[in-house]
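Collaborator request, handled under Task 6.
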Amino acid sequence: MELPYTPERMDPDPARAKTREVSARLLELAGVKGTVTEPRTGMSIVTCDEYGRDLYALEHRWSVGGMTSDQYDAGMQNLRKALGGNGWEIKKDGPDEIRAKNEAGHFSVTVAAHTATLEPTLDFTVNSRCYQATSHAAYNAG
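Structure tokens returned to the collaborator:
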């Protein structure tokens, strides 16, 4: 199988930094002030072995909690308004979930509002496209 694009050559550490920058920018776009947490998985490397050697993608899961229900709703509305003007295209817009892609930045995001729980959260899952490590050693060290 071949990817429909040429993967950017980047080792895991700089790719993680880039992914964290994207996540931080998404938090800014949401415009909410709460407690940001990463679940046990935090940021994971996902192999893209089916496309070739030393290819990987990143998945960054994190949440914002400790807010009022109005703040969760405001965060979702802020994202609906701000994503399009910041390089993102909303692919799915449901009452409790937004899925968007940033083709130029090579990222996708899913934001889910879980407000009907004892500890409400806005859950973000940021995914990168596949990267190619500069060497097999760098890939294995990642």
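The cover message to the collaborator said: "The beta strands are 8-9, 35-37, 43-47, 55-65, 89-93, 97-102, 107-114, 121-128, 131-132. The two ends are 24 Å apart (CA to CA). Please let us know whether this matches your experimental observations."
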